[in-house]
Amino acid sequence: MKTVWEKYPEEARQPIFDLADDYKAFITAAKTEREQVAEAIKLAETKGYKPLEKYKKLKAGDKVYVNNRGKSLCLFAIGKQPLEKGLNILGAHVDSPRLDIKQVPLYEDGASGLAFLDTHYYGGIKKYQWVTQPLSLHGVVAKKDGTLVQVCVGEDENDPVVGISDILIHLAAEQMKKPAATAIEGEDLNILVGSIPLKAEGEEKDLVKKNVLAILKEKYGIEEDDFLSAELEAVPAGKARDYGLDRSMVFAYGQDDKICAYTSLRAILEIKKPERTSCCILVDKEEVGSQGNSGMQSRFFENAIAEMIAKTTDYNDLLLRRALHNSRMLSSDVSAAYEPNFPAVFELKNSAFMGKGIVFNKYTGARGKSGCNDANAEFLGKLRKVMDENKVMFQTAELGRVDAGGGGTIAYILANLDMDVIDAGIAVQNMHSCYEVSSKADIYEAVQAYTAFLKDMD
Ligand code: MN
Ligand code: MN
């Protein structure tokens, strides 16, 4: 068989399209790490998951989640074996490249009388892709009185959208000579948010900006100073869509890595009473290096395991270390799908293709595997056995030709904790652009792969 489509004949494909519909709805409703965590908790609670603090003691079959600051989440389906025997872990990240609103963002351009929000981009982007796109604003504003105001504007079809302009081609003679990296500069990613001046009471300045502030005050009860303690993100506005005349693909913002997050979540939510404890980690800050208290380098994950051990037996540190040592992980992140329009950056034998199933990357990294987690051959051997026994279609790949570029994931961070980890994931096109493309067949097959791993990896 060449593709997953051939594995499932036409009459067996409805579950593939149904799952894709669920996925599109999920990533349309949850475009930021905070929204991902909130939606994942909602879904998990319908399947019987409860916060760890609700349990006095844990036993096999219990469903537990640990919410880390609303930005990262760990889910656990407690197994029959003690935790020190190790967990089967699926990990994916829920942050995606975007434009963050600066702490002092709002200004009015004097010459034009237009009001803007200044941004600082987050993660690796080709800046030229982010201009002339409809953008929405998502996030929270933490007021001094302790209230957290939720902001989401630009997603409802009756909402306005905002955006960043580009110069017309007629006046772009100089711009078009620049390398793509500098044709649009990071400091010029300013979002246009208003053009109507407030009614002047004398010699007032910045009336358009003041009008925007008045709207924010009325709609959200926030003042200009409240931007200081806000996390607002501009992301592409609109819904995830079917792609291709045959509707075989999904076109959506943020599939890196919400496509692996959602499929991992779907897999663990169907696990009932596993042998080994199942775990799903949905984590923030991967796109900027995984640091900070919501990133994978934070100790929140180890702490969560420690808390769980304390709720199953008399805690001691050795039990935690054994639990980590005996764990296995699929670090699930998107892989670069072979691009027929750009064949030069791929090496065919070791490329990932859309529609050919979940991708295992033994290593990622750049410039001679630098920064990679190089999964152990023995672990890969066991993984192949689990996949084959469960008739799961998989492929192996590198991230492009040697020295074409490269990238990293959270894999090495968990491997540093002394467990076996391999990079796994779904192939996407247009990675890190406003709209990434994936195959519905791969989404479906990824859930089968994750389910097989949770049940049968030992
Ligand atoms: Mn990623
Ligand atoms: Mn990425």
Secondary-structure map:
Elements: H1 4-7, H2 14-29, H3 33-46, E1 50-51, E2 63-68, E3 72-77, E4 87-93, E5 98-109, E6 114-122, E7 135-142, E8 148-153, H4 180-183, E9 190-194, H5 207-220, E10 230-236, E11 241-243, E12 249-252, H6 255-269, E13 277-283, H7 300-310, H8 317-325, E14 328-332, E15 335-336, E16 358-361, E17 365-366, H9 377-389, E18 394-396, E19 406-407, H10 411-415, E20 420-425, E21 427-429, E22 436-439, H11 440-456
Parallel strand pairs: 1-2, 4-13, 4-14, 14-20, 15-21, 16-18
Antiparallel strand pairs: 2-3, 3-13, 5-6, 5-10, 6-9, 7-8, 7-10, 11-12, 12-22, 16-20, 17-19, 21-22
Low-confidence stretches: none
CATH topology term of the largest domain? Aminopeptidase
Small molecules bound? manganese (II) ion
Number of domains: 2
Largest sheet: 9 strands, mixed
Physical arrangement of strands within the biggest beta sheet = 1-2-3-13-4-14-20-16-18
What Rg do the Cα atoms give? 23 Å
Q: How many β strands by DSSP?
A: 22
Structural class: alpha/beta
Approximate shape = globular
Arithmetic mean of pLDDT: 97
| Count of runs of 4 or more consecutive helical residues | 11
Distance between the termini: 28 Å
Level of helix content?
A: 25-40%
CATH C-level of the largest domain: Alpha Beta
| Strand composition percent | 15-25%
Please name the CATH architecture of the largest domain. 3-Layer(aba) Sandwich
Supply the CATH superfamily name of the largest domain: Zn peptidases
